[in-house]
Amino acid sequence: MNPVKERPILFSAPMVRAILEGRKTVTRRVTKVQPRSKADIGSYGLGQPFIRNPDVTRSNPECPYGRPGDRLWVRETWEDVHPAQVTDGRYSQAGRAGIPGPPSVTYQTIYRADGPYPKVFYTHQHPYRSLEPDSDHGFKGPADNGYTGWTPSTHMPRWASRILLEITDVRVERLQDISEEQAEAEGVGFLRAAPDFDETLTAKQLFEILWDHINGEGAWTVNPWVWVVEFKRVTP
Questions:
Q1: Is 67 helix (H, G, I), strand (E, B) or coil?
Q2: Which of 32, 217, 227, 229 is the most buried (most CB within 10 A)?
Q3: What are the pLDDT digits (tens) for 30-56?
């Protein structure tokens, strides 16, 4: 029996919110090797497809995100911040940065998907940060000079990830074969909150809009073969 493997996977802030709210349970990613037809798609068993490589000197690629039972830790935009910035019940977890003491200050990790970067100002007094400007301190904090502080998701280490997913199914499909139910499970619901939302649009049409936004105008019409990775969240 193969051991469970963990791999990172990137998600944007809206997609992270959809995962946290239980609205996103599947993701589609373009296959690096495109099948020439369905005949190029093989399987080692349930949920373990592969693509026959047209280059016979190379191996047949499987899904780079893993097989059913493997796990994915989510990379999202994040930052370690002073605990004074964690307000209004915002989720945070222990970070790896801080201000040495005594008394020391341990930073907290927060995530862009949960809201904007909280403003903060420097102060001479412990705990060295304040939500209001300190008239005795000559330099105002990051929020005043345009610095947001967010670290890109591509630089998130494993310890900072708060979401762990378990793969439940993997398959290969044409992008445009997506069903209404699957489009909804892609987490497109957030698009309905747009001020100019057209209520006649179906979930599949919303997914088309989202796909072109992520992959570039006209990407939907290319109709590539994609890895379809279904998952469930395994951490609270």
A1: coil
A2: 229
A3: 999 999 999 999 999 888 999 999 988
